[in-house]
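Researcher: Checking consistency across runs. Here is histidine kinase again:
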Amino acid sequence: MFGEEEMEIDWIPKHTLIHFSRHVAFELERAIYEAKQAKSLARFQTLAKSAPMGIVLADPKGNIQFANPAFSDIIGYEVKEIIDKSFKDFTLEEDIDSNIGDLRQVAEGEKGFISITKRYRHKKGNVIWAKVTISSMLPKGSKQPEVIAIIEDITDKVHREQEVNRINAAYEQQRLLMVAGKKLPTVLHGFTIIPKGDSYRRRFG
Protein backbone atom coordinates (compact mmCIF):
# COMPACT_ATOMS: atom_id res chain seq x y z
CA MET A 1 0.00 0.00 0.00
CA PHE A 2 1.34 3.43 -0.92
CA GLY A 3 1.61 6.11 1.74
CA GLU A 4 -0.05 9.48 1.21
CA GLU A 5 3.28 11.14 0.47
CA GLU A 6 3.78 8.68 -2.40
CA MET A 7 0.29 9.29 -3.71
CA GLU A 8 0.80 12.92 -4.68
CA ILE A 9 -0.29 13.07 -8.33
CA ASP A 10 -0.26 16.84 -8.71
CA TRP A 11 -1.30 16.88 -12.37
CA ILE A 12 -4.82 15.67 -11.56
CA PRO A 13 -6.92 18.75 -10.71
CA LYS A 14 -8.98 18.49 -7.54
CA HIS A 15 -12.14 19.50 -9.41
CA THR A 16 -11.70 16.33 -11.46
CA LEU A 17 -11.22 13.97 -8.53
CA ILE A 18 -14.41 15.10 -6.78
CA HIS A 19 -16.37 13.39 -9.55
CA PHE A 20 -15.04 10.03 -8.36
CA SER A 21 -16.06 8.21 -5.21
CA ARG A 22 -13.36 8.40 -2.54
CA HIS A 23 -12.38 4.77 -3.12
CA VAL A 24 -12.26 5.08 -6.92
CA ALA A 25 -10.29 8.35 -6.72
CA PHE A 26 -7.71 6.72 -4.44
CA GLU A 27 -7.44 3.62 -6.61
CA LEU A 28 -7.11 5.69 -9.79
CA GLU A 29 -4.43 7.89 -8.23
CA ARG A 30 -2.53 4.78 -7.16
CA ALA A 31 -2.88 3.26 -10.63
CA ILE A 32 -1.55 6.44 -12.23
CA TYR A 33 1.32 6.51 -9.75
CA GLU A 34 2.16 2.90 -10.61
CA ALA A 35 1.87 3.62 -14.32
CA LYS A 36 4.18 6.62 -13.98
CA GLN A 37 6.65 4.36 -12.20
CA ALA A 38 6.29 1.90 -15.12
CA LYS A 39 4.96 -0.82 -12.82
CA SER A 40 1.43 -1.43 -13.98
CA LEU A 41 0.11 0.26 -17.12
CA ALA A 42 -2.38 -2.60 -17.51
CA ARG A 43 -3.77 -1.94 -14.01
CA PHE A 44 -4.25 1.72 -14.89
CA GLN A 45 -6.15 0.82 -18.06
CA THR A 46 -8.39 -1.59 -16.14
CA LEU A 47 -9.38 1.06 -13.60
CA ALA A 48 -9.71 3.73 -16.29
CA LYS A 49 -12.35 1.67 -18.08
CA SER A 50 -14.75 2.17 -15.17
CA ALA A 51 -13.89 5.83 -14.51
CA PRO A 52 -16.68 8.41 -15.02
CA MET A 53 -14.28 10.88 -16.68
CA GLY A 54 -12.89 10.45 -20.18
CA ILE A 55 -9.36 9.01 -20.12
CA VAL A 56 -7.07 8.64 -23.14
CA LEU A 57 -3.52 7.35 -23.67
CA ALA A 58 -1.71 8.51 -26.80
CA ASP A 59 1.76 8.65 -28.29
CA PRO A 60 3.62 12.00 -28.47
CA LYS A 61 2.09 12.74 -31.89
CA GLY A 62 -1.43 12.35 -30.51
CA ASN A 63 -2.25 8.94 -31.97
CA ILE A 64 -4.69 7.33 -29.54
CA GLN A 65 -3.70 3.94 -28.11
CA PHE A 66 -6.31 3.62 -25.36
CA ALA A 67 -9.66 5.29 -24.68
CA ASN A 68 -12.14 4.46 -21.95
CA PRO A 69 -15.94 4.16 -22.37
CA ALA A 70 -16.52 7.57 -20.77
CA PHE A 71 -14.51 9.29 -23.51
CA SER A 72 -16.40 7.23 -26.08
CA ASP A 73 -19.66 8.57 -24.64
CA ILE A 74 -18.40 12.17 -24.71
CA ILE A 75 -17.60 12.21 -28.45
CA GLY A 76 -20.16 9.64 -29.61
CA TYR A 77 -17.75 7.17 -31.23
CA GLU A 78 -17.28 3.56 -30.18
CA VAL A 79 -13.94 2.79 -28.56
CA LYS A 80 -12.89 0.67 -31.55
CA GLU A 81 -13.49 3.71 -33.81
CA ILE A 82 -11.18 5.84 -31.64
CA ILE A 83 -8.16 3.57 -31.25
CA ASP A 84 -5.30 4.25 -33.70
CA LYS A 85 -6.89 7.54 -34.76
CA SER A 86 -5.29 10.92 -34.12
CA PHE A 87 -6.80 13.32 -31.60
CA LYS A 88 -7.06 15.66 -34.60
CA ASP A 89 -9.76 13.41 -36.08
CA PHE A 90 -12.09 14.36 -33.21
CA THR A 91 -10.99 17.95 -32.59
CA LEU A 92 -12.71 21.05 -33.94
CA GLU A 93 -10.63 22.29 -36.86
CA GLU A 94 -9.99 25.72 -35.32
CA ASP A 95 -8.42 24.15 -32.21
CA ILE A 96 -6.03 21.70 -33.86
CA ASP A 97 -2.96 23.94 -34.19
CA SER A 98 -3.07 25.17 -30.59
CA ASN A 99 -3.69 21.61 -29.32
CA ILE A 100 -0.64 20.36 -31.24
CA GLY A 101 1.44 22.96 -29.41
CA ASP A 102 -0.02 21.93 -26.04
CA LEU A 103 0.72 18.26 -26.74
CA ARG A 104 4.28 19.03 -27.79
CA GLN A 105 5.02 20.96 -24.59
CA VAL A 106 4.00 17.98 -22.45
CA ALA A 107 5.49 15.23 -24.65
CA GLU A 108 8.87 17.01 -24.84
CA GLY A 109 8.95 17.71 -21.11
CA GLU A 110 8.65 21.49 -21.32
CA LYS A 111 5.73 21.23 -18.89
CA GLY A 112 4.91 18.49 -16.39
CA PHE A 113 1.23 18.86 -17.15
CA ILE A 114 -1.12 21.28 -18.84
CA SER A 115 -4.83 21.99 -18.41
CA ILE A 116 -6.78 23.39 -21.36
CA THR A 117 -10.30 24.02 -22.57
CA LYS A 118 -10.86 22.54 -26.01
CA ARG A 119 -13.62 21.58 -28.42
CA TYR A 120 -14.33 18.14 -29.86
CA ARG A 121 -16.52 17.35 -32.85
CA HIS A 122 -19.17 14.80 -31.79
CA LYS A 123 -19.98 11.99 -34.22
CA LYS A 124 -23.37 13.65 -34.79
CA GLY A 125 -21.63 16.89 -35.76
CA ASN A 126 -22.30 19.01 -32.67
CA VAL A 127 -19.50 20.70 -30.73
CA ILE A 128 -18.45 19.30 -27.34
CA TRP A 129 -16.62 21.59 -24.92
CA ALA A 130 -14.16 19.86 -22.60
CA LYS A 131 -11.69 20.57 -19.82
CA VAL A 132 -8.62 18.46 -20.60
CA THR A 133 -5.65 17.81 -18.31
CA ILE A 134 -2.61 16.31 -20.06
CA SER A 135 0.49 14.69 -18.56
CA SER A 136 3.10 12.17 -19.71
CA MET A 137 4.99 9.14 -18.45
CA LEU A 138 7.74 6.84 -19.73
CA PRO A 139 6.77 3.13 -19.59
CA LYS A 140 9.44 0.67 -18.51
CA GLY A 141 11.66 -0.45 -21.39
CA SER A 142 10.37 2.27 -23.71
CA LYS A 143 12.13 5.33 -25.09
CA GLN A 144 8.85 6.93 -26.12
CA PRO A 145 6.64 8.63 -23.53
CA GLU A 146 2.92 8.00 -23.22
CA VAL A 147 0.61 10.99 -23.04
CA ILE A 148 -2.29 10.72 -20.58
CA ALA A 149 -5.36 12.96 -20.89
CA ILE A 150 -8.30 13.25 -18.49
CA ILE A 151 -11.34 14.77 -20.20
CA GLU A 152 -14.29 16.44 -18.47
CA ASP A 153 -17.36 17.35 -20.54
CA ILE A 154 -18.25 20.99 -19.72
CA THR A 155 -20.61 21.60 -22.64
CA ASP A 156 -23.66 22.35 -20.47
CA LYS A 157 -21.65 24.76 -18.32
CA VAL A 158 -20.34 26.62 -21.38
CA HIS A 159 -23.83 26.88 -22.88
CA ARG A 160 -25.19 28.31 -19.62
CA GLU A 161 -22.42 30.91 -19.54
CA GLN A 162 -23.06 31.82 -23.17
CA GLU A 163 -26.76 32.28 -22.43
CA VAL A 164 -26.02 34.52 -19.45
CA ASN A 165 -23.69 36.60 -21.64
CA ARG A 166 -26.39 36.88 -24.29
CA ILE A 167 -28.93 38.06 -21.73
CA ASN A 168 -26.42 40.54 -20.28
CA ALA A 169 -25.78 41.99 -23.74
CA ALA A 170 -29.51 42.21 -24.48
CA TYR A 171 -30.17 43.88 -21.14
CA GLU A 172 -27.41 46.42 -21.74
CA GLN A 173 -28.80 47.20 -25.19
CA GLN A 174 -32.26 47.77 -23.74
CA ARG A 175 -30.83 49.88 -20.92
CA LEU A 176 -29.20 52.17 -23.46
CA LEU A 177 -32.51 52.47 -25.30
CA MET A 178 -34.17 53.44 -22.03
CA VAL A 179 -31.52 56.09 -21.44
CA ALA A 180 -32.29 57.39 -24.92
CA GLY A 181 -35.91 57.83 -23.84
CA LYS A 182 -37.46 54.56 -24.94
CA LYS A 183 -39.37 52.23 -22.64
CA LEU A 184 -37.54 49.19 -21.25
CA PRO A 185 -39.66 46.04 -21.76
CA THR A 186 -40.20 43.74 -18.80
CA VAL A 187 -39.69 40.62 -20.89
CA LEU A 188 -36.99 40.06 -23.52
CA HIS A 189 -36.79 36.94 -25.68
CA GLY A 190 -38.73 34.95 -23.12
CA PHE A 191 -36.60 36.08 -20.16
CA THR A 192 -37.70 38.49 -17.45
CA ILE A 193 -35.32 41.42 -17.32
CA ILE A 194 -33.80 41.72 -13.85
CA PRO A 195 -31.51 44.66 -13.01
CA LYS A 196 -27.86 43.87 -12.47
CA GLY A 197 -26.81 43.37 -8.88
CA ASP A 198 -27.31 40.70 -6.24
CA SER A 199 -30.76 39.68 -7.48
CA TYR A 200 -29.45 39.26 -11.03
CA ARG A 201 -26.56 37.10 -9.90
CA ARG A 202 -28.85 34.92 -7.83
CA ARG A 203 -31.09 34.33 -10.84
CA PHE A 204 -28.46 33.70 -13.51
CA GLY A 205 -25.09 33.36 -11.72
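Researcher: Does this match what you'd expect to see?
Model: One thing to look at in this run: Strands lie at 54-58, 64-67, 113-121, 127-137, 146-153, 187-188, 191-192.
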